[in-house]
Each structure stands twice: as structure tokens, then as C-alpha cells.
Amino acid sequence: MIPGILLVDKPKGITSMKVVEEIKRKFRFKKAGHTGTLDPIATGLLIVLVEEATRYAEFFQRQPKTYETVAVLGQIRDTYDEEGKVLEEREVKLSCEDVEKALEKFRGRILQKPPLYSAKKLGGIRAHQYARRGVDIELKAVEVEVYRAQVLECHIPVIKLLYTVSSGTYVRSLVHDLGMELGCGAYVKDLRRTAVGNFSVSMAISFERLMSLEDVMGVLIPIWDALQFLPAVYLSGSQARPIKNGNAIHLKTHFNGYVRLFEGEEFLGVGLIKDGLLKPYRLMPLKVG
């Protein structure tokens, strides 16, 4: 099986890991994983890596992610979404202009506390496990980046927002914090991931449709194509030999960063160039025989 990725449109009401497990079982993959959790309440683009493509998950995890969310003003909920317990109700006396102005504070680099009901780990245990046991914990704020925050629709108390954010950003927290800034509270009613880097949900296959297929060859993107956001470096046989043995080589280039490595048409893996020195970073397994 060619190592690659599947672009899956995750439905509501199922965990990301359940999607991966079902795909792995159905198509008998030895390895499978995803590149960023979508809450059960969320729908949209889930990138599933299969077989040796799982080696390259980090490169997809680093890509910016875009979401569209419907938020409701006037309530504070413990999970920050519609499935949570209502902690407080507040009157909403706001205009759409107030929302736009408050949103300005949530662009760029910001400190964000993850929701207590989240997969964030503390002492090896996920935060939501503590929360469901009634254990009080304090999650540290982490720096995230909001590249884009935009009001798509505004019908107070319901607003539709678009966010493009860095890895590790919780849209539920963005909505909750916006509500607190407005003084009325807010929670997520609907959440959809529409893009990861250059991959759009419009390119994805629905989970239901995928599970009806006999094989994935028509929808699988080979890992060397999926990593097209990394520059390609083509090596000669004499250059590739030390790389495959784990050694660095010198290259005449001013580029610094991660690159895809090829020997002819063969994808070798990912290398890292720094100050003219190319080092193997994460290579495909060597062929036996």
C-alpha cells in the first residue's frame, strides 16, 4: 500500500480517533493516525495518515487551520459548547459593531487557556477526565496565533465567525473569551474545520462515502504529493547514499528549512537544510533486498 493521506469530512457525533479506527479496520491498514483532533461536536476536515505516512504527522500539525463557527451570546457553559451545562445566563445588550470591536483583541499572538473539557494533558491525564470527576485543575495559558478572525454573519444573539489559527488553538476558548470580553458570555453551537494549510474540506470525501468504498486508491494522496508545501530536492546517487545512511551532505543553497528528498522518482523522506548542510530528518524505511 502506498503511504499517503486521506482527506475526510468528519461527521458530527463521532470522535476523531473513532474515525481513524474505523478506517484502519475497514481497509486493513497496519498504521493510521490523524493530524489534529476535532471534537465530537465538530465536523469538517480531518487529515488521516496511513502506513508510513504517519512518520510525517508533525508537518501537517504545524499547518494553520481554518474554522467556521456559530456562536450564541448570553450564556456561559462549562464545556464552552452547546453540550455543556449552563453555568450562567446574562442579558445581551450589544450591537454587531460591539462584536467587531471586541474581536480585534483576539487577533495576532494571544495567550489562551484551553477548555477544562479538552484533550489537553496534565500529569499524563486529559483535562476532560479531571473535569468529569469534579477535580479542580488549573491549565496554564499558552501562546497561540490567530491569523484571521472575522464576523461572517451577525444576528444578535447568534453570530457566525471565521478563524484561521495556529496549531493548538481552541476555537471554543476563542468564543468563550470573546463572550467574556463582551460581558455576556458565549458558547459554540456549531463548529466546522474548513481547511488545514492548503487542504480544503471541499477536497475531502465524506466519512460515510469513504466507508462504502472497496479500496482507497482513488482517494489516497501519496505522502510525497501531500507534503507539496515543502520544497523538493532531487539528489544524485552519490548524494543520496550518505543521506540514506544517516549522514549529512553539503549543498550549494541559501535555503534553510525542511525539504522533501528524492533520488530520481523515489521519495526518500524529509531532510533539514541549515547553513548549506543537508541532514536527514525523517526518512522512509530502507527497502530490503
From TrEMBL:
Organism: Thermocrinis albus (strain DSM 14484 / JCM 11386 / HI 11/12)
Superkingdom, natural source: Bacteria
Family: Belongs to the pseudouridine synthase TruB family. Type 1 subfamily.
Enzymatic class: isomerase
Entry GO MF terms: RNA binding; tRNA pseudouridine(55) synthase activity
Family annotation (HAMAP family): TruB_bact
tRNA pseudouridine synthase II TruB subfamily 1 C-terminal domain segment(s): 231-284
Keywords, ordered alphabetically: Isomerase, tRNA processing
InterPro entries: PsdUridine_synth_cat_dom_sf, PsdUridine_synth_N, PUA-like_sf, PUA_sf, tRNA_psdUridine_synth_TruB, tRNA_sdUridine_synth_fam1_C, TruB_C
Function of the molecule: Responsible for synthesis of pseudouridine from uracil-55 in the psi GC loop of transfer RNAs.
Domain tRNA pseudouridylate synthase B C-terminal per the UniProt entry, residue ranges: 172-212
UniProt-recorded name of the protein: tRNA pseudouridine synthase B
Reaction catalyzed: uridine(55) in tRNA = pseudouridine(55) in tRNA
GO terms under biological process: mRNA pseudouridine synthesis; tRNA pseudouridine synthesis
EC numbers, comma separated: 5.4.99.25
SUPFAM superfamilies: Pseudouridine synthase, PUA domain-like
Active-site feature positions: 39 (nucleophile)
Residue span(s) of domain Pseudouridine synthase II N-terminal: 24-171
